[in-house]
Specification:
Blueprint: H1 2-17, H2 23-35, E1 57-60, E2 63-68, E3 75-77, E4 90-92, E5 97-99, E6 114-116, E7 123-124, E8 138-140, E9 145-146, E10 162-164, E11 171-172, E12 186-188, E13 193-194, E14 210-212, E15 219-221, E16 234-236, E17 241-243, H3 248-253, E18 259-261, E19 267-269, H4 279-282
Parallel strand pairs: 2-4, 3-5, 4-6, 6-8, 7-9, 8-10, 10-12, 11-13, 12-14, 14-16, 15-17
Antiparallel strand pairs: 1-2, 18-19
Length: 284
């Protein structure tokens, strides 16, 4: 009897130690593999082996929490089933050949903290549902083919620290909701097709350290309120259509000293105000 009990116990321990993720999550991984031509990956998955052995996949408590397939020759669109990986915290697909639009189901990833699909060929507009991934700290989608406007809902991601969308073809204005991102440290929107003004509410981005709006089509007065950003270390807002005067402090902070493009397409440097040298003076 003791021998049988010992055998059953050992069998239970053995099965538990090799416990697999749910069939729903496994199906999502298989869909990703097939949709991005897994047979051509540099580091391939053997779908007959336990998921825990698959390259770049991390599992905790029988849940997929991380997928890191950097520079792994993924080719194709991400399937909607990616939204079934509801415990995913990290999705890093940097430098591949991912195409198509980012699926709306990306918003189902409520535990996601890091999203990096930079240096791919993702097209279309970022889905508004991305704002539902409320735990995101970093969104890096630069060097893609994104179009459309910036999703207003991203302004609801209160923990967001990095938003990097440079070198795309994004249009429209910066949503007012973005000026409420108190945790934002890095905002890189350069080399797009953004228009409209940089609002004075930019001063609300109290954690901002790096601001790049270089090479867009933004216009209006450069707000003196930028000087209220005490943590700002790097800024480049040149090669837009901003006008008016700027303070000495702002002109020094900008990498290209406020070089703008006028309506004739000619590069011109904004004049520096000698009377108002700060945002605080501008408030008077």
């Amino acid at each position: 009897m003791k021998t049988i009990f010992t055998y059953v116990t050992l069998l239970f321990v053995s099965v538990s130690s090799f416990a697999e993720i749910s069939s729903t999550e496994k199906n999502a991984l298989v869909k990703i593999n097939k949709a991005t031509k897994g047979s051509q990956w540099i580091n391939k998955w053997d779908l007959k082996t336990p998921v825990s052995t698959w390259y770049g996949v991390e599992i905790q408590n029988d849940k997929v929490v991380s997928i890191k397939l950097v520079n792994n020759n993924l080719n194709g669109e991400l399937p909607k089933e990616i939204g079934d990986l509801t415990s995913l915290q990290v999705l890093n697909l940097f430098r591949n050949n991912i195409t198509g639009v980012l699926p709306e189901t990306i918003g189902n990833l409520k535990s996601l903290t890091i999203l990096n699909i930079a240096f791919n060929q993702v097209s279309g507009a970022l889905p508004e549902s991305l704002g539902n991934a409320s735990h995101l700290k970093s969104i890096e989608m630069h060097m893609n083919r994104l179009t459309g406007q910036l999703p207003v809902a991203i302004g609801n991601i209160t923990n967001l620290e990095t938003l990097s969308l440079f070198n795309n073809e994004i249009e429209g204005q910066i949503p007012m909701s973005y000026y409420q991102l108190k945790s934002l440290k890095v905002l890189l929107l350069n080399s797009n097709k953004l228009t409209g003004k940089l609002e004075k509410e930019v001063s609300s981005l109290s954690s901002l350290e790096t601001l790049s709006l270089f090479e867009n089509k933004m216009d209006g007065q450069v707000p003196f309120d930028l000087e209220k950003l005490g943590n700002l270390k790097e800024m480049n807002i040149s090669y837009n259509m901003f006008n008016g005067l700027v303070s000495k402090n702002l002109s020094k902070l900008d990498t290209l000293n406020m070089t703008m493009v006028n309506e004739q397409g000619v590069a011109t440097t904004l004049k520096v105000s000698i009377d108002k040298n700060s945002a605080f003076a501008a408030d008077e």
